[in-house]
């Protein structure tokens, strides 16, 4: 086949393979001196998909230095980045070298030490394209899939997170792109999908966020996270030749076919019609039973390796587990939902609720009894062989005979280009500034979609099941005060330790300055965890990048700037990355040829160890007459702020994204020490909406706040900037009057400012 025919084949099969990858396949089969089978082509396409192999993060990226400053040129030696993952993300973890990180970037989820007996795991995934065309199913199976990731490191899931990005719900129908669903329909479907899976599996949904931007209308982002716990040393990762390949759980259907390749493509008006079957159908009760079987199988030592069956189905799960050994698989043994599936469909279906484990021969009988007792279907697909060849047959008919070396090392490294936008930095158009009344401004800010209460969504999720939730999404005396992080004490554990889970994402900042936005996201995620009692020296983070088409240089520029910032900022905090996920091609191409790309969107999730649950402060004011301090040196700015979106940039104020301050790392350590000594009654970070919004939220406890007349002078800023400007590295704390001296002494050398006091009358006096 010539190049034109190769690309036509890739497009016809929706394989999302470029010409270099298609040529590599052609050359392999020339060497093999035989034609490629349909099943082999589909296997290669999913194994080499962006979704599965992360080609963009491994690409060699050449940078156009024409418009770069000298400082930017120095940041990119040779104007080239050879693998983002190696240069920035994994390198940060390697350079930090935290001894409490037990596993990072090598398994289904990252793992850190909880205590001497237990380890905790954390993973966040995206399910964006599926949620755009079938919101309930996309979100539902997104949650199910990330839960299986945690099951795939032999852990019991104890918490779920969800961060959702939507178009504005009041978008006029005529402005909704052709072939896409209205944001209202996407929002309701996604929320129901998240609720359905977590609630039915009995896993609390404890942390998340909801963001709105017009560019998410046709490309919603659905970030799903899960945390798990397991006894240390119980997770087995090495199958042996002769082990049985065992599938546990759901039956196989056509749902989810080509999901990995579909998620690697730009969407258009026809996507819903041609890719509808790429969205899976979930059955959480089946997965709950599988999870229970796996815990017992783990404790009894019945398997030698485990992985989840997600993107690519058995092709991915078995293929990856057999990458060094090879295998012999008989597809005729697979239980099906209905008849009529072709062998390649059985192999690549992404039907849900399936786990694959390697089982030694002498353990198979015990595993079968365990499955029978729990009404879980066990299927013996074949064996690992030891000859590094992937053999797949249907009965006696062989449909795949592939070298594992070619399959997993064959894709050529992508070569991409990066350049800043030609017309300068992307910008946000703000209204012309007219100074508002302060109280009117406060009302507008707290009603903005970035700040207002999300209780109507959160209350649909069960965040109490399992009985380990210490700090809820909304807490305080009336259960209505938004918290910075969730705190959970897994039921297996003893003592006072717990886990804090937080997140941060700001699409408005991503549009203005990707580098600053990434630093701000890491800072806020860590800051949120610290505010809930987490030890900043025992906090790990996850990175989830969502951007547009990587073949566009401006997309790659935003990506490398974010990744470089991740490296630099993680080193300051000494917060290792333990897992991550990227999602590209989050764009919509209209029938008129108009391209709409999402803002550069980086979600940072943090997991930190809380040494003492009795010291968790929460963000609700506790006591009348307490002193209110701002902790951290503020550098107020209006770039990407809620206030600026509503009223414009005040004259003389900064329109940049708030800069990251390195001193925050030491500040958070000192604050954590004070929290653990019981000196801090409540603590809340400054983020969207600034100081005024944070104070208002703390006052929802029923205890009011009164600011000093000169509070803004103490902070070195104008009143409007002090109230509504946004900054990194700052928190509000409530300190008992009798503890002020001790607190100030403990915080010596750090920037702290007494700005007011709590009062008996509910409300905020500006």
TrEMBL record:
Give me the Gene Ontology terms describing cellular component: cytoplasm
Write down the NCBIfam families for this protein, in alphabetical order: FGAM_synth_II
Which PANTHER family would you find in this protein's record?
PHOSPHORIBOSYLFORMYLGLYCINAMIDINE SYNTHASE SUBUNIT PURL
Q: Which residues bind Mg(2+) 2?
A: 149, 308
GO MF = ATP binding; magnesium ion binding; phosphoribosylformylglycinamidine synthase activity
UniProt name for this protein: Phosphoribosylformylglycinamidine synthase subunit PurL
Q: Which Gene3D superfamilies match?
A: PurM-like C-terminal domain (3.90.650.10), PurM-like, N-terminal domain (3.30.1330.10)
- Provide one Gene Ontology biological process annotation: 'de novo' IMP biosynthetic process
